[in-house]
Design goal:
By secondary structure, this protein is mainly α. It is built from 13 helices and no strands.
């Protein structure tokens, strides 16, 4: 039974599952264990370390087609990543082998048509496996890097979305062949019907999985990419400001030397006027150049005017 309603955090988890038993596999993918009694969705998620908002977003999307805004920043990318990764494990390591085993048990493997059906199943299963392995080797590590605050310029989620294909129709031909052309004699019809029913269920599961990736996961990743990009720009600006502010200030003695220099005095004349040695003047000049990154007399003159060390009218 599927009950069409939007579930909320204060609904009981048992009611959600009773209304929509198809969500049992979803509980497992989220890492939610059974035995939660009459606790609410919020209580179960909190106790088992699952982001309840993201859980309910997925539930309401799969049950009712409820789609959040693409700018919804409350969806947890980490929670979705765990959900999708667990779903891959369930499908690749459990469901695909289980269905094949049931087909083997049902079909007369000595029949040539049975062998072709198994071969066709293996081809489709291989395509789905390649599809999911790509995500595990490329997309998922990229998302983990984003969660660590790393920004990889060579890849982004739009590259994934552009090449992301829907695996929903992989079993369509197989189903049609079994239904239309499988001989009635020599096959366990009840068991074959049950296996066919399971193939239909898994095709629906694949469709749901693909839509969660496209409608929920991809937009959530885009939001994270924008945040990290903005943070990078902010960090660079902050670093520049910090670098400027961290520069050593020009001392009063160095300001006096700057004034003397822009007035045209030589090192010896500056030394005599300030009662210091020529070597000291030279040392101060090096420090001034290092601090201000100014090496010309014209540059020092502009600096002196801008900082009110001398009157602009003197040079007019």
């Amino acid at each position: 039974m599927k009950r069409m309603k939007l579930y909320e955090a204060d609904d009981k988890m048992i009611d959600l599952i009773s209304d929509n038993y198809s969500m049992l596999q979803g509980l497992s993918a989220f890492g939610i264990r059974l035995g939660f009694g009459d606790k609410t969705v919020e209580e179960v998620c909190q106790q088992q370390g699952v982001d309840s908002y993201t859980f309910l977003t997925v539930v309401n999307f799969l049950i009712n087609g409820y789609m959040p805004k693409e700018t919804d920043e409350r969806i947890s990318v980490a929670t979705l990543l765990g959900y999708l990764r667990a779903s891959h494990f369930y499908f690749l390591d459990f469901q695909l082998p289980t269905i094949r085993r049931k087909l083997e048990e049902t079909l007369n493997t000595k029949d040539s048509l049975a062998g072709l059906i198994l071969k066709l199943y293996d081809e489709y299963a291989h395509d789905i496996r390649v599809h999911m392995r790509y995500e595990e080797k490329t997309l998922f590590p990229y998302v983990e890097a984003l969660l660590r605050g790393e920004n990889k310029s060579t890849y982004n989620v739009d590259i994934f979305a552009k090449h992301h294909s829907d695996t929903t129709g992989k079993f369509q031909e197989l189903k049609n062949i079994i239904i239309k052309y499988l001989p009635q004699d020599g096959f366990a019809n009840n068991q074959l019907t049950a296996t066919l029913y399971e193939i239909y269920n898994n095709e629906e599961w694949l469709s749901n999985h693909s839509q969660v990736e496209e409608i929920l996961f991809v937009p959530a990743i885009r939001i994270m990419e924008r945040k990290i990009k903005n943070d990078d720009v902010t960090s660079k600006i902050t670093a520049m400001i910090r670098n400027v502010n961290s520069k050593e200030e020009v001392s009063e003695r160095e300001k006096e030397i700057i004034v003397c220099l822009v007035q045209g005095l030589s090192n010896k004349e500056v030394a005599a006027k300030l009662f210091i040695s020529v070597n000291t003047v030279i040392t101060h000049r090096r420090n001034i150049a290092r601090k201000l990154q100014i090496h010309s007399l014209a540059g020092l003159t502009i600096y002196a005017i801008a900082n009110n060390l001398i009157e602009k009218s003197v040079f007019m």
